[in-house]
Write a structure and sequence with these properties.
The structure holds two protein chains of two kinds. By secondary structure, chain A is mostly helical. Chain A has helices at about 1-35, 50-60, 65-95, 95-110, 120-125, 130-155, 160-165, 170-210, 215-225, 225-260. Chain A is built from ten helices and no strands. The two termini of chain A are about 15 Å apart. Chain B has seven helices and ten strands. By secondary structure, chain B is α/β, with parallel strands linked by helices. Chain B has two domains: about 1-75 and about 150-255, P-loop containing nucleotide triphosphate hydrolases (Rossmann fold, 3-Layer(aba) Sandwich); about 80-150, no CATH class. Classes of the chains: A mainly alpha, B alpha/beta. At the A-B interface, helix 7 and helix 8 of A face strand 6 and helix 2 of B.
């Protein structure tokens, strides 16, 4: 256990060091290109220092904090709706061969459509508001969820089902006691992917709308020609996405896999 | 009593693993082993009795009622243990009884009793992935026994295990069977195993899978594999199966 912890700390330190190197390089090229050679204009290239100042300002005014909260809340609500819709769709396309043959390819096609393509529809149908963004999020991630659910059920080892049947399991018990629990690991993997789609779709939606959120903060930065703020928001979007992935999904995934001896 | 009446099974688009005119009556309490060259349809026959597959011709009756699908009166033990990794040992054994609607306390009591019988009492709370292959198969055996089914179907349950574990499990199964005299239909490719267990050995021929011969085997139990009579029957059986394999190989060869 002790050893495990130290290797983990080592890994984190290594990663942090790498990030520091990236920032140093960034600063170096900024200095070279903007200050020394004058190749680029300072308003078109962000600098580490500028981003830091921007960060301080947005933190002080509370804009950043409320934007993160608003975006996260919206993302979670939209993602929850996408899960519900995706699970229902997934079970349907798994259960009915007709839908599996015909609806599944359509869903597959929908999934390849970038979520930003839903923005015109969403604005037409809902206006420039919260519902419009939620619509984009749901469209962006529900299809991937439904495919994941279908896949998860598909990949339940046939032996599990055969054994349960010969022990007299009815259709309902088969689903509740065998298929559902057997699906859990791949379902969590599906959730994880679904979340990344939802988070991206959320930003597409927020960029278009004027309600408070990270996407809107990024656009405000652009409108004020503040490239540092744009960069800052981009970094925050990445960080929030990664933190949710690592802290929530990876943790649950590891726990489930460990319990089943798959890790 | 299990009756097979002129049971046949063919698969569209394949010639292998077909069964033809299998007629067999198995009395309660009998231990029947099915042997034959690989690919002769041993497992198919077992699946038909289990209700996992449907016969193309003929019918199967268990206590005069036709077999129409899988059911808890014909529990199967597979080559792999088929345990559920999200449940621990005890929960796995209890799950089958849950399908049977056995009340919870009774489930637990019975599960513990059968775990004791297969010497896994202390491992009740263990997760499945911490068990060895032999232990897993013993859990599967406990689960099957706890269901108290009319018929126990075993599809080469020990064939994926090493020799020593197999011997140990054979002795355990024999002990248990001598106590409860369940009706067992046991598929195996091992002549030794068949002679060790069976009251009657059903030898299948290959392509189409038909009953070639039924060998009655009334050696005293517990049986010893180095007994003269044991060796004699085993040889007889091996010779039968070998002939079948050769015949089929020759047919295949001649076609080329």
């Amino acid at each position: 256990m002790q050893k495990k912890n130290t290797t983990r700390i080592k890994k984190v330190l290594e990663l942090l060091l790498f990030l520091v190197i990236l920032i140093v390089l960034w600063q170096f090229f900024y200095f070279l290109g903007v200050d020394l050679l004058g190749l680029w204009k300072s308003y078109s290239v962000p600098s580490p220092g500028g981003v830091a100042i921007s960060c301080m300002n947005l933190l002080q005014s509370g804009v950043l904090f409320s934007a993160i909260l608003k975006s996260l809340g919206r993302g979670i609500v939209g993602f929850a709706m996408a899960i519900i819709l995706g699970v229902i769709l997934g079970i349907l396309i798994h259960h009915f061969p007709y839908l599996n043959r015909n609806l599944k390819p359509v869903i597959l096609g929908m999934q390849t459509l970038p979520s930003i393509c839903w923005v015109p529809f969403s604005i037409l149908w809902f206006g420039l508001n919260n519902s419009a963004i939620l619509f984009v999020v749901v469209m962006g991630s529900a299809f991937s969820m439904s495919l994941a659910v279908d896949d998860a059920i598909q990949n339940v080892p046939p032996l599990y089902i055969k054994a349960a049947k010969t022990m007299g399991a009815g259709q309902k018990e088969l689903y509740a006691k065998v298929i559902l629990p057997a699906c859990v690991p791949s379902f969590i993997a599906g959730l994880r992917q679904g979340w990344s789609f939802a988070w991206r779709a959320l930003m597409s939606g927020e960029v278009m709308s004027s309600t408070i959120g990270l996407g809107q903060t990024l656009i405000v930065g652009r409108d004020m020609a503040d490239i540092n703020q744009v960069m800052l928001v981009m970094i925050v979007i990445i960080l929030v996405g990664v933190v949710i992935d690592k802290c929530i999904f990876t943790t649950i995934e590891n726990r489930v896999l460990k319990k089943r001896g798959l890790l | 009593m299990l009756e097979l009446k002129k049971v046949g099974k063919t698969y569209p688009n394949t010639v292998k693993r077909t069964l033809k005119d299998i007629s067999l009556t198995i009395e309660d309490g009998e231990f029947i082993c099915i042997v034959g060259p690989s690919g002769c349809g041993k497992t198919t026959l077992l699946n038909l009795v289990a209700g996992l597959e449907e016969p193309t011709t003929g019918e199967l009756l268990l206590d005069n009622a036709p077999i129409t699908g899988p059911g808890a009166d014909r529990v199967v033990m597979f080559q792999e243990a088929a345990l559920y990794p999200w449940l621990n040992v005890l929960e796995n054994v209890m799950l089958g009884m849950e399908f049977l609607k056995v009340p919870k306390e009774e489930r637990q009591r019975r599960a513990m009793r059968y775990l004791k019988m297969v010497h896994l009492y202390e491992f009740a709370e263990y997760p499945i992935h911490q068990l060895s292959g032999g232990m897993r198969q013993r859990v599967a055996l406990a689960r099957a026994l706890a269901m108290d089914s009319k018929l126990l179907l075993m599809d080469e349950p020990f064939s994926a295990l090493d020799k020593q574990t197999t011997n140990m499990l054979r002795a355990e199964l024999e002990q248990i069977w001598l106590k409860n005299h369940k009706t067992i239909l046991f598929v195996t490719h091992s002549a030794e195993e068949a002679v060790y267990f069976a009251d009657r050995i059903v030898v299948l021929s290959e392509n189409p899978g038909q009953i070639k011969e039924i060998i009655s085997c009334d050696l005293k139990r517990p049986r010893k594999i180095d007994d003269e009579e044991f060796i004699h029957i085993r040889h007889q059986l091996l010779e039968l199966v070998r002939k079948e394999v050769m015949k089929f190989a020759k047919e295949e060869y001649d076609q080329d």
